[in-house]
Each structure stands twice: as C-alpha cells, then as structure tokens.
Design a protein that fits this description.
By secondary structure, this protein is α+β, with helices and mostly antiparallel strands. It has 2 domains: about 230 residues, no CATH class; about 140 residues, 2-Layer Sandwich (Alpha-Beta Plaits), CATH 3.30.70. The protein has 15 helices and 7 strands. It has a 5-stranded mixed beta sheet, with helices on both faces. Strands 4-5 form a two-stranded antiparallel ribbon. The chain starts with 5 loop residues before the first helix and ends with a strand. About 40% of the residues are buried.
C-alpha cells in the first residue's frame, strides 16, 4: 500500500514549526549572554520598529490581512508596556491594570486572528478586527493616563512581577487551544507562526527581567510571523498545492544547480484523461496525489517535481541512467501493484448505524505510469536538452504500450 500525501503535509508542517522554534531559541540564547545583551540593548528599539513596520508592509503586499492584525496587536502590546517607568507596573494601579489588560487581550487577539479568513482589509471581517484593535488601543491609552503623554521608556527596567492574572493564564490557554487546532487542520507556515508568536508573547509577559527581555520576546514573535509569511509565499511559488511536490519553478531552479553527472526521468500517468472523463476531476486529483506520494519516496536519491498536468519529473544528481533504472522500475511496479478505491457517489462517508438499502459498490481502479529517462550526451549537453531527451524517451515508452521504462 502506498503512503498517502499526508506525509508531505506533515513534513511541511514540521519544517514550519522548526523555523519558529529556532527564532525563539536564538532569542533565549541572546538574553543569556551578558555581552550580547549589552550589544543589543541599543539596537532593540530600532529593531522592533523595523520588524513590525516591514512585516505589516510585507503582509499587505501579499494580502495576508490576519498577519497584519497580529503584528499590529503585538506592536501595540509592546508600546503599551513601554509607557511605564521602573515603578509604574509594580506600584501604581494604572500600570498593573494595563499590564493585566495586555496579558488578557493579546492572546485572545492572536487566537482570533489565527482563524481569520483572508477576505480583505475592507471586508466586514477586516473592518471588525480593525475596530477591535482601535478599541483596545483607546482603552490602553486611557488606562495609561498621564504616562501616555510622557516619553516612552522602551528599555526601562520593568522589574519582577509575581501576580500574573489568573484570567490572563486562562486566555493564553484558550488561545493555545485555538491556534493548535488551527495548525492541526491547516498545517501551514503561517499557522505555525501564530503558534510560536503566542509562545513568544507569553514569554514576554511572564519574563522577570528587564524591559529588554520583554520587548525582545515581543519582537521575536513579530519576526516569527514575518518569517512564516515568507515561507508561505515560497511554498505558493515553488510548491504544487495539489500534490505537495515542488513545482515547475522549483524544477527550473534545480536544473541550474546540477553538476556534470546526472539523470532525468519524465513520468506520465497512463490514460489520465480517462480517469477524469469517467470518474470526474475529483478522482483525477486523488490519482495525482497518490502518484505524487509514491514519487516522493523514489529511491536512488531522486527528487520529484510536478512538471504540469499529469506529468512529473525526477532528478537524480550524481547518477547515470543505468544507476537509476532499478529505482524507476521499483517505482513503476509499486504504483502498478497498488489499488485505488473510487467511492460510489451514493456511498456514505461513515458507516450507518442501521441497515441501509443496497448501494452501488465502490470501484477499484489500477494506476500505471510510463517513464522516460535520459542523461547528458553530446547531442543533449544542457539540462533542458536532457529534459527534452527524457520526454522523448517517455513518448517511446507510451508508443511501446505504456506501463514501462524507456531510455
């Protein structure tokens, strides 16, 4: 049985999680080094502004409104905390209220924005969230009182606080569940970014050191969202959304990096048009995902790409055609021997509790592929020429009856 494309989604989500974790780990390491703390103390104010402003502009350019709102919320929290001098948070009621308010509001904002549907800044959802942030800003400003008119002391020592509000802990726990469920359902880079940004906000608000620590963790949360946005944009540009494999643009980039010794295989799903015409495009999409899952596991160091339509390409760097034939034949046999179950249109997704009328049986289909392989020669010296030679070999495999490997 071939493994399904869920493995590809798992790998993508794991990569997104690692990126955010590394940013937070680097932040914690920086704060543990006295020399690095001293070096960054004068840079953090400017760094925080650069991260938040550039992040908002980048999210606006990519039309990721929920990232804009999340960055603005974290920036406002940073600004709110920075308005108080040393004793402001510990010894004055407004300071304690503002700190507790931020600790209560920010996690709920992040949990809400993680589930936000991208419908545009001027959509009803966008206007509602903008109004929410504006109202929160006004509340924080009113609570700040006279301190709002004073010069912000971004890196003033905040001092320890021992009474993190219980409602704030509940808010963080609720937000963590919301963001974790969203990540489990979508497994995207931005979803992972929201998860780590929430952790960064918690570390910022529960830190017991200087304002440098608080602001740096907030900035790290914003940076994680910016990096996740870049990762998502890369995935959209270089990964095929349907199969999870690298797409045509990634293939073109990989061709430029090949050394003098390599092989290229072109793969086509046999009679793919028949699948679509007979069973519908949704079945055709399932076939593409199934074949892609098998290609992702090809041996011999091969890297699979979706070339377009029902065609795929596999690059074998540092291998000759003869060295790849065994792996390509194993791939062909694995797909041929697998079964593909097409669910009948009137068959329920779940087994009914009571006896049901006789339904049409699901149909088992068998998928086969044709493969053409080539390597550099005098006539095909460049990667693009080798790609064309592999495509020609693929044509010969189809002419010879399909379901075979040709060179």
């Amino acid at each position: 049985m071939l493994r399904q494309p869920a493995l590809l989604a798992f790998k993508g989500s794991l990569s997104a999680l690692v990126t955010g974790g590394l940013v937070l780990l680097a932040t914690a390491g920086l704060l543990r080094s006295p020399a690095l703390r001293a070096a960054f103390a004068g840079l953090v104010p400017a760094l925080s502004y650069v991260v938040f402003v550039s992040g908002v502009l980048l999210a606006w350019r990519f039309d990721r409104i929920r990232v804009i709102f999340a960055l603005v919320a974290i920036a406002l929290a940073t600004w709110g905390v920075s308005l108080f001098p040393v004793a402001g948070l510990k010894n004055t009621l407004p300071g304690a209220v503002v700190w507790g308010g931020i600790a209560l509001i920010l996690p709920l904002d992040l949990g809400l924005f993680a589930w936000f549907t991208e419908r545009g800044l001027l959509s009803p959802y966008g206007k509602l969230n903008a109004a929410l942030l504006a109202a929160e800003t006004i509340v924080v400003a009113l609570l700040c009182g006279d301190a709002a008119l004073a010069r912000p002391r971004l890196l003033a020592r905040i001092g320890e606080f021992a009474h993190f509000p219980a409602p704030a802990l509940l808010a963080f726990a609720t937000a963590l569940v919301l963001v974790a469920v969203r990540f489990a359902l979508r497994r995207g880079a931005v979803e992972a970014g929201f998860l780590w940004a929430l952790v960064a906000a918690f570390l910022a608000l529960t830190s017991s050191g200087s304002a440098l620590e608080t602001v740096l963790y907030f900035t790290a949360g914003g940076l994680i969202l910016v990096v996740s946005l870049i990762e998502e944009s890369y995935a959209l540009a270089y990964l095929d959304e349907l199969t999870g494999l690298p797409g045509r643009r990634a293939l073109n980039a990989a061709l430029l990096k090949l050394g003098p010794r390599y092989a290229i295989a072109m793969i086509d799903i046999d009679h793919f048009k028949k699948f679509n015409d007979t069973h519908g495009h949704h079945v055709g999409d399932q076939v593409l995902r199934k074949v892609a899952a098998a290609l992702a596991q090809v041996g011999g160091g091969g890297q699979a790409f979706r070339y377009g339509g029902e065609e795929f390409a596999v690059l074998f760097s540092g291998r000759s055609v003869d060295e790849t034939l065994r792996h390509l034949e194993q791939l062909r046999q694995a797909i041929e021997e697998s079964e593909f179950l097409v669910r009948a249109p009137d068959r329920p997704l779940k087994k009914p509790a009571a006896a049901a009328p006789v339904l049409r049986a699901s149909k088992t289909l068998h998928i086969t592929i044709s493969i053409g392989a080539a390597e550099p020669t005098r006539r095909a010296a460049t990667p693009n020429q080798v790609l064309d030679a592999a495509d020609t070999a693929l044509f010969r495999a189809k002419q010879a009856g399909r379901n075979r490997v040709a060179v």
